């Protein structure tokens, strides 16, 4: 069976015609190594496909007969993708490239395209180089240009918001809502859940205590989001929680949101149920905030407001609402809550 090529077609490894025969010590024999590398290491791994220009006429014609083009394609990704590639190679030694580039023309071609084929692992330095460049850009264009603001921040913070958001890498509150340094005290966890007071200490309520009682924030904003893996884990869980699962033990905090979702959306498919629960869990977290005596006291006095938000990163929309404390308290015990000041940003 012929080995598969980079684009899925076959490369014939049968003897070449006489007119393509090579001198015994021809340097272009290294091109055959590329075919072997492609066959051995890159089959089934399109992200690692080798794209090297085959300028030798005999090989070009042979590959053309098999409808296989091996090109010197430039890398469209940034240095971040290089760092990702390094991470994949580091954790998968079977994918490491072990190619000896003996032909000078091929070495030059690869160099021109900034494609290095090395033996052994590569470090993740490109990833940190990109991070360093971002930091230096921040310093030059933000820190130094607004030095007075940052000098004031060095003396203390007085943010108006505390934000509770998911740890999902696609949901960065400062990025999507434009919070600047000093404007929001942020805690992130799986599925942006707030456990009730009676559950005991967690890093989330420790942050709540500090933000509300020491920093004196005026608003708490709980942000849910689309395609939340934590909510899917919550909706998928069995009644019995596996005690060895940290995720399962954590998302059970949202069990009331799951129950109300199953009651209200049992006729919907699983994805739609998850979408419903992504918002319902935010509202249940708002109610859980009121189980903290020092939070409810400030809300009752009107010096602290509690808000919910939902970021849909599929179509880039944001919904915002506020918990109506008086109406919700009047319904306490009925498992009901009341919302106000709904807004939709698109």
TrEMBL record:
Zn(2+) binds at residues 166, 168, 225, 228. Binds 1 zinc ion per subunit. Belongs to the beta-class carbonic anhydrase family. Its cofactor is Zn(2+). It catalyses: hydrogencarbonate + H(+) = CO2 + H2O. It comes from Rhododendron griersonianum. It comes from the Eukaryota. This is Carbonic anhydrase. CDD domains: beta_CA_cladeB (cd00884). Keywords: Lyase, Metal-binding, Zinc. Its EC number is 4.2.1.1. The lineage of its organism: Eukaryota, Viridiplantae, Streptophyta, Embryophyta, Tracheophyta. GO terms for molecular function: carbonate dehydratase activity; zinc ion binding. Reversible hydration of carbon dioxide.
């Amino acid at each position: 069976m012929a080995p598969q090529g980079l684009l899925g077609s076959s490369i014939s490894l049968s003897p070449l015609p006489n007119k393509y025969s090579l001198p015994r010590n021809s340097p272009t024999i290294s091109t055959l190594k590329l075919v072997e590398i492609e066959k051995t290491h890159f089959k089934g791994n399109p992200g690692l496909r080798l794209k090297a220009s085959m300028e030798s006429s005999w090989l070009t014609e042979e590959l053309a007969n098999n409808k296989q083009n091996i090109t010197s394609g430039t890398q469209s990704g940034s240095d971040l993708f290089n760092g990702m590639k390094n991470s994949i190679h580091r954790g998968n030694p079977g994918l490491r490239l072990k190619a000896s580039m003996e032909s000078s023309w091929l070495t030059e071609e690869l160099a021109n395209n900034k494609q290095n084929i090395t033996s052994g692992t590569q470090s993740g330095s490109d990833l940190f180089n990109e991070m360093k460049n971002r930091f230096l850009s921040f310093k030059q264009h933000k820190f130094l240009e607004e030095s007075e603001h940052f000098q004031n921040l060095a003396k203390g913070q007085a943010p108006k918001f505390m934000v509770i958001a998911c740890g999902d890498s696609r949901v960065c509150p400062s990025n999507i809502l434009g919070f600047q340094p000093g404007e929001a005290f942020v805690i992130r966890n799986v599925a942006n859940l707030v456990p009730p007071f009676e559950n005991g200490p967690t890093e989330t309520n420790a942050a709540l205590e500090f933000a509300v009682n020491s920093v004196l924030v005026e608003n708490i904003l709980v942000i849910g989001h689309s395609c939340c893996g934590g909510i899917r884990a919550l909706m998928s869980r069995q009644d019995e929680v596996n005690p060895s699962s940290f995720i399962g033990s954590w998302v059970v905090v949202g069990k009331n949101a799951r129950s109300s979702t199953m009651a209200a959306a049992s006729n919907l498919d699983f994805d739609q149920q998850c979408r419903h629960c992504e918002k319902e869990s935010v509202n249940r977290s708002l109610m859980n905030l009121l189980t903290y005596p020092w939070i409810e006291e400030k809300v009752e006095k009107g010096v602290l407001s509690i808000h919910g938000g939902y970021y849909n990163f599929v179509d880039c929309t944001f919904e915002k609402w506020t918990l109506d404390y008086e109406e919700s308290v009047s319904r306490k015990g009925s498992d009901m809550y009341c919302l106000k000041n709904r807004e939709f940003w698109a």
